[in-house]
Amino acid sequence: MIGTIVNSGAIIVGGTIGLLLKSRSPRKLTAIAFQGIGLFTISLGIMMAIKANNILFMIFSIILGGITGELLKIDQAMDRMGEKLKRIARSESSHFAEGMVTAFLLFCMGSMTVLGAIEEGLGGYPNLLYAKSVLDGIASIALASTLGVGVLFSIIPLIIFQGGLTLFAGSVQGYLTDNVIMEISATGGLLLLGLGISILEIKRIKTINMIPALLFAAAFALIFKG
């Protein structure tokens, strides 16, 4: 799991730099940067979502995933975890949970995460995860400078998700076909779109509750291969 460890370290370093920049930046600059992050998240989400091979998979995944997340009350559980982590970090940020979830989705929804984790898990040199670490480290500077310390704590779900894929690469390799990865990535793009809308305060969308949609997207792609 050296690739995931390096990836997490890059996020911590980049996020720390971002926090230092945030503490020295005028509030107006932070506000405009915050809006820029929202616009970027929306544009990235759109670019990922339009690559879906089957739009019906994405629609039903979001609907079923949202219903599942609402019944499981994932957003409430995430808020409670965020509050506990805030106390540990001694942070007063009002965007703590938002920063953690936004950063996690930005860092982990692309095919680079899945392919890189499988590459290392099967004994290969983690070239993809090293390249991803550079990109995530740079992105975390911008994210932390606007969304705060929650970005650093995004390494917790990242280690669980990306590290889990690495550890179980041999078991999941046969299921994670190009089509499955594409559908997961496209559905993740729709979640990013929702996050961007929330960040810009256009409409509060319970994106966290829609995270199970990723599992439904994978299931649909596996069941309806053709």
Automatic annotation (TrEMBL):
<feature type="transmembrane region" description="Helical">
    <location>
        <begin position="138"/>
        <end position="168"/>
    </location>
</feature>
<dbReference type="Pfam" id="PF04474">
    <property type="entry name" value="DUF554"/>
</dbReference>
<feature type="transmembrane region" description="Helical">
    <location>
        <begin position="180"/>
        <end position="200"/>
    </location>
</feature>
<keyword id="KW-0472">Membrane</keyword>
<feature type="transmembrane region" description="Helical">
    <location>
        <begin position="95"/>
        <end position="118"/>
    </location>
</feature>
<dbReference type="InterPro" id="IPR007563">
    <property type="entry name" value="DUF554"/>
</dbReference>
<feature type="transmembrane region" description="Helical">
    <location>
        <begin position="29"/>
        <end position="49"/>
    </location>
</feature>
<keyword id="KW-0812">Transmembrane</keyword>
<feature type="transmembrane region" description="Helical">
    <location>
        <begin position="206"/>
        <end position="224"/>
    </location>
</feature>
<feature type="transmembrane region" description="Helical">
    <location>
        <begin position="55"/>
        <end position="74"/>
    </location>
</feature>
<keyword id="KW-1133">Transmembrane helix</keyword>
<protein>
    <recommendedName>
        <fullName>DUF554 domain-containing protein</fullName>
    </recommendedName>
</protein>
